[in-house]
Amino acid sequence: MSVSFTVEGRVARVTLDRPDRMNAVDAETEAELEAIWTEIERRDDISCVVLTGSGEKAFCAGADLKGGSGSSGVDYWTVGRENGFGGLAFRRSLDVPVIARVNGYALGGGFEMVLGCDIVIAVETARFGLPEARVGRMPLDGGMVLLQRKIPFNRAMAVMLTGRQFSAQEMASYGIVNEVVSAGELDAAVDRWVSEIVACAPLSLRAIKQTVNRTAHLSPAEAQALRTPALIKALKSEDAMEGVAAFRGKRAPVWQGK
């Protein structure tokens, strides 16, 4: 297994476990990731996912060009990855919040996976980039279509057209990274964000993310009018009543996820 997957206390932890390859993704790893995201989508006992890479050097260095991803550019492109790199970059069926714990290099597909996450916490030494053009390729699995939608056009183009690496602080100034911390503070920072997310009603979290995912292409009026399944379920839930009762009673809510 090249990916570790655990669930505890409504928190799933997905860890790319190929430190000797800078957690680069080969065909086997890609298949494992797709299976994990699909399982998370089926479960109702998960309120948050933390995605990271093992070791201290890399989050993910992208596609493993020595591990089965070194075919021609056309061959790689025609395979078709409807959910983007790692099954995550532009996945729209995953209604659970995902935190990227960026512990090092996030390059190529690794950066594309970061773009598919909802919150990004990075160690101050982390480096981000889309270096594909430097090896005669392109950021096919999310970079070209996502980055320009997340940050100003000229900044997105600077990342893609130079192929250079950017610091965590630069990515924070661009709006990609939520928080930059020292290596010794990384886990505490991630745990703090996790605890704040898990404190929210599970069905509310799903409704928010599902609605955001399915309305980004709509006008504000169209988005407001859309009644996503998760939104209806959350509004009719027992937890919706519990949240109000807990607020009035000045106590912590007890979520049932129903």
UniProtKB/TrEMBL annotation:
InterPro entries per UniProt: ClpP/crotonase-like_dom_sf, Enoyl-CoA_hyd/isom_CS, Enoyl-CoA_hydra/iso, Enoyl-CoA_hydra_C
GO biological process terms, semicolon-separated: fatty acid beta-oxidation
Transmembrane segments: none
Keywords: Lyase
Entries under Gene3D superfamilies matching the protein: 2-enoyl-CoA Hydratase, Chain A, domain 1 (3.90.226.10), Lyase 2-enoyl-coa Hydratase, Chain A, domain 2 (1.10.12.10)
A Pfam family the protein falls into: ECH_1
SUPFAM superfamilies: ClpP/crotonase (SSF52096)
Keyword Ubl conjugation among record annotations: no
MF terms in GO: lyase activity
Keyword Transmembrane helix: no
PANTHER family recorded: ENOYL-COA HYDRATASE, MITOCHONDRIAL, ENOYL-COA HYDRATASE-RELATED
Family: Belongs to the enoyl-CoA hydratase/isomerase family.
Entry protein name: Carnitinyl-CoA dehydratase
Species assigned in the record: Rhizobium freirei PRF 81
Gene: caiD
